[in-house]
């Protein structure tokens, strides 16, 4: 059994990770930790897990965690992970960071978009960007896995086959993404109140959302060109789900068949479903799947590629487990749901 | 492997059953059937199950189903099951009916509340009321299991320890129950439209809801007295969940300790969680659990017992699988979820 | 023009009051005040009112308010109003308190249920319980009007004709009430977050909710007997609306006709609608109306009376304006909506 | 008093029109009609209007309507209006069509996108596209007003200042729009059921939604160039509201100041609010306002212009009343709300 520590176990992503790991046949949760709730039972904070996860939460002390765990999941506020992870920690445990600290290869880009100093720049080159469908082989040997963001997972995977194969103009890409409210976290903020979110939709972070450079990094790498794109996230009155509408200009002469072939790289991916109808977030809810669909518009010369994920699963905790499964040589789908009930 | 047929696989309860069975280690779905969608792939109707349940739906022909299945689940409109099930069917397959046709022991009561003739009165005595926490031993040998209704499961289980032990006055019981909208089914009715349900709550079936005699039958049997009670259901703008508030007058002299002791009959039940705070439906969502809590009000002399279930799981498909597990001698919890993620 | 001050203008009830008064032909908002947002424009806090209510918010100083206003509305945390209102304030302005401080005639009852000292017990006898349909004549001359609570308005009005006419047993009354989330206010509390409220229903304050004694006071007064009743509130995933299911035992021999006649006292009330079908909260949303319906259950001997209001309008701001209209001799319906759009 | 007929009074847009007109000081509803509910009281279909609109619904006979009304509002399925309106009707009544039949100047474009024959092509040139902020002067003398669609109103008004002033490249415009569910109408369709819409978001009509040519027509006219653009609508789990994110490439050299100046054409428009923060649909709910905001992204060279309306008000019934006010020389804002309560 792999022993797992979770630091930040009571945030929404951390709690989803706890839930998924509780059903994982190869993992034992040895060190569940929470800054705010150390000393409480996990199921007192999440009563839905009563009888399943009644363990007492520990202090979020990474050194103790490293002593008791083979893998440490970090689900912490931005900037914290990079000040906690050290070579020593990595020598004893694999670290999978659900936050942003190790996702951007370029420290300067991080500091510009996050308006904060990076505390562990030397570790950046040891980290792998943990998007398995693109970096599976690199993930295998790594000790430090930067689990991608929710919007970014959805956006990158939806556009990757197109940029990788040079089928779209790299200039002018627009990503209009919509997220459920769990993406805003469990913090007691006015903007997260039921009555402030319900019965409304809004854009936020227009032109400056932090997930932008992450998407650009991965798509630039795939295309070999510097991609600068437009990314706009939105808050939707629902608990879970991300839908990303990706708009791009098709390169002249590209056919439907070319596009179909490009997406066929996902054919054997267990968590990618190529669907005919525009994807709906309810159909991936609770699963680690991404549903992808696309349309070419001959009138405009554009392609519209649409991807849908569950922001807490493929966009966070599920993908972290997928990364763990890869890192430890387990079946990649172990513990991860492939089918969504409906209505849920 | 147990071979299972599902007639009515594309209604909400039927589809949830398909989903649960698809994760069940001891079952193979051999005959999924749908009146409306025969010939389609299940995952075309429920795209969330693409890649998991792509099988083609069959005609809802119970005789063919009986040839190909050890257990037949019926999830059909009221009145249909009683005209389909025969001794011959029962001789080859166990039948678990998610509908109401075999729940009421007294045909006259059925016909009065359902305003329709009963087509198989002779089978009534062969049927068992499939509420495992109360009738587990009777379920074991039976070929025809009447799976309880959603409101009824929640109401009966919440009140059972009190009536069984004579702790409450059997006169004057009030059950005020609230249900998510999936309980209204997948029919294209005006009252089920998003804009007709959202941002509102209402009572319906006041004084005449069909689940009333079912609750009365079971509680009367438990108490040994004829119980006539007030049951009022409500429609709540959410997908899933039932909350039942049960009000009753405590018998003079009954103490907190007496009540605690009465509920301790559930102590070892895998699907019953006795909780301190009032139960919330989100904490049982997707699980086969019932959360139960109670308060004695010394001012009024009442006890308020509160129960919460997921109407599609413990209130329908999950309990049907629990019954199947019992009938076939499997671990009762096999395939059934015990912990609820949150937010979900 | 009546000059109006609002202290606590940026809470949900206060803001609704601002909105209603902005459409009132006889009122000028002369002193809008907010403890948290003094110095900001109202429309910066509530952008939906941009162009309509751009005035700058003042300090919540009741003495200044009294200098500049004929009527002062208080929408403040419990316990604050009773420490602010004085004889001097009342000599210059009519005070309408949307909070609980002056609702209970008996200071001891207040202190028991609110667990706090009452700061202005001498003013209690000067206050009138501002439920116009019951106390209209008393309201007319009063300087201090205690605007009723939301649950209480709905519960009292629904049961009043029955208790007033002695048609129900005063023992054993059960009120099971359901409220939208705006009733929890605009405070940044975990339990008010979108993801904690959405897709769930729960009871709270079981046996000890503070609105209980207020309902009991008014119904006891109406019946001439000491009424002790069971009141259970619930949180529903919707913005607005209260539904109260009131259960009581009919006195022997009472007929449908007796009940109909009792409710006919509301016949000419502009804000009471007697409806045939069970009321739905969406049909009173945004209005100052209460919809009331009832059923007698011959099986149980009970009557179930159902009332629905908008908690922020008839349950708070709208009723406050109705009280102001009465106190100042205006048309009682001025500024108040009578019809609800749907879907809204 | 202007006498008004409404044909199609029980659809969501028609009912909202009924509600708005019921509060309009200069209008009397003389002929409310419904194909499905003729003979019923309006308030039996919309109980929220009980006591306000209890009139009996008539047959939807346009000739009778013309005899009894100065203005006829049509809220009918596509294709019906063009077969009903005649020169004779127009000679006696002003017709305001909330449907699409008279919006597109070019019959061929209509027939291509709507896949149906146009029944009144001769009337097309008599019709004016009723977007007051752009065509106010043309509306004044016209007898046939084509009330714009919901998505189109929001999209056109948001982009108009930019295309009118040549500030954006006319090639490559992307409109990603999101709508509440009332936009799908009151029809009993599977896709409109609560459980099919709730907790999910999806795109639909990708590349082929019928509102596309309407947006292109108006923006092409404003710019003097043939604009072909990408329009993608989405279904959001909320009752009301449209948000349109409009992406375009700024023409080289265009400054923030140029953009600000362009939008200043709306400065004195009563229903346009230029806001700093990204607009949220809740802030226009129930009003006839559009909130518009924009950001220039120097990294990408794009401008993102965002508009938000209430689809049933500015996107349908409210704008129809605005058009009527203009056509009959009334104050343009009469009967129309300018401020949105929140939460609502």
Automatic annotation (TrEMBL), chains A, B, C, D:
<dbReference type="InterPro" id="IPR036291">
    <property type="entry name" value="NAD(P)-bd_dom_sf"/>
</dbReference>
<keyword id="KW-0521">NADP</keyword>
<comment type="similarity">
    <text>Belongs to the NAGSA dehydrogenase family. Type 1 subfamily.</text>
</comment>
<dbReference type="InterPro" id="IPR000706">
    <property type="entry name" value="AGPR_type-1"/>
</dbReference>
<dbReference type="Pfam" id="PF01118">
    <property type="entry name" value="Semialdhyde_dh"/>
</dbReference>
<dbReference type="InterPro" id="IPR050085">
    <property type="entry name" value="AGPR"/>
</dbReference>
<dbReference type="GO" id="GO:0070401">
    <property type="term" value="F:NADP+ binding"/>
</dbReference>
<dbReference type="InterPro" id="IPR000534">
    <property type="entry name" value="Semialdehyde_DH_NAD-bd"/>
</dbReference>
<comment type="pathway">
    <text>Amino-acid biosynthesis; L-arginine biosynthesis; N(2)-acetyl-L-ornithine from L-glutamate: step 3/4.</text>
</comment>
<dbReference type="Pfam" id="PF22698">
    <property type="entry name" value="Semialdhyde_dhC_1"/>
</dbReference>
<keyword id="KW-0963">Cytoplasm</keyword>
<dbReference type="GO" id="GO:0005737">
    <property type="term" value="C:cytoplasm"/>
</dbReference>
<keyword id="KW-0055">Arginine biosynthesis</keyword>
<dbReference type="InterPro" id="IPR023013">
    <property type="entry name" value="AGPR_AS"/>
</dbReference>
<dbReference type="GO" id="GO:0003942">
    <property type="term" value="F:N-acetyl-gamma-glutamyl-phosphate reductase activity"/>
</dbReference>
<keyword id="KW-0560">Oxidoreductase</keyword>
<keyword id="KW-0028">Amino-acid biosynthesis</keyword>
<feature type="domain" description="Semialdehyde dehydrogenase NAD-binding">
    <location>
        <begin position="3"/>
        <end position="142"/>
    </location>
</feature>
<protein>
    <recommendedName>
        <fullName>N-acetyl-gamma-glutamyl-phosphate reductase</fullName>
        <ecNumber>1.2.1.38</ecNumber>
    </recommendedName>
</protein>
<dbReference type="GO" id="GO:0006526">
    <property type="term" value="P:L-arginine biosynthetic process"/>
</dbReference>
<comment type="function">
    <text>Catalyzes the NADPH-dependent reduction of N-acetyl-5-glutamyl phosphate to yield N-acetyl-L-glutamate 5-semialdehyde.</text>
</comment>
<dbReference type="GO" id="GO:0051287">
    <property type="term" value="F:NAD binding"/>
</dbReference>
<dbReference type="InterPro" id="IPR058924">
    <property type="entry name" value="AGPR_dimerisation_dom"/>
</dbReference>
<feature type="active site">
    <location>
        <position position="150"/>
    </location>
</feature>
């Amino acid at each position: 059994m792999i022993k797992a520590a979770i630091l930040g176990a009571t945030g929404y992503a951390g709690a989803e990770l706890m839930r998924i790991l509780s059903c994982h046949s190869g993992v034992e949760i040895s060190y569940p930790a929470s800054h705010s709730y150390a000393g409480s039972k996990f199921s007192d904070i999440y009563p839905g897990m009563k009888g399943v996860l009644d363990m007492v939460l520990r202090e979020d002390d990474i050194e103790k965690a490293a002593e008791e765990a083979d893998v440490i999941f970090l689900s912490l506020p931005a900037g914290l992970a990079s000040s906690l992870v050290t070579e020593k920690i990595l020598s004893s445990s694999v670290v999978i960071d659900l936050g942003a600290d190790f996702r951007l290869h370029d420290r300067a880009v991080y500091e510009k978009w996050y308006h904060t100093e990076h505390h562990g720049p030397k570790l950046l080159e040891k980290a792998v960007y943990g998007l398995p469908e693109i970096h599976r082989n690199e993930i295998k040997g790594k000790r430090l896995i930067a689990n991608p963001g929710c919007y970014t997972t959805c956006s990158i995977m939806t556009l990757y086959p197109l940029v990788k194969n040079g089928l779209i103009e790299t200039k002018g890409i627009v990503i209009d993404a919509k997220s459920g409210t769990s993406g805003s976290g469990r913090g007691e903020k006015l903007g997260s109140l039921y009555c402030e979110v319900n019965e409304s939709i809004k854009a936020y972070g227009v032109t400056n959302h932090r997930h932008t450079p992450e998407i650009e990094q991965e798509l630039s790498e795939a295309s070999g060109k510097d991609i600068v794109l437009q990314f706009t996230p939105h808050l939707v009155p629902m608990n879970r789900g991300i839908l990303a509408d990706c708009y791009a200009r098709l390169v002249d002469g590209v056919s439907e068949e070319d596009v179909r072939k490009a997406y066929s790289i996902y054919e054997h991916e267990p968590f990618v479903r190529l669907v005919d109808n525009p994807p709906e977030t309810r159909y991936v809810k609770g699963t680690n799947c991404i549903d992808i669909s696309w349309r070419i518009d001959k009138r405009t010369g554009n392609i519209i590629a649409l991807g849908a994920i569950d922001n807490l699963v493929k966009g966070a905790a599920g993908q972290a487990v997928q990364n763990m499964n890869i890192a430890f040589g387990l079946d990649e789908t172990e513990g991860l749901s492939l089918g969504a009930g409906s209505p849920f």
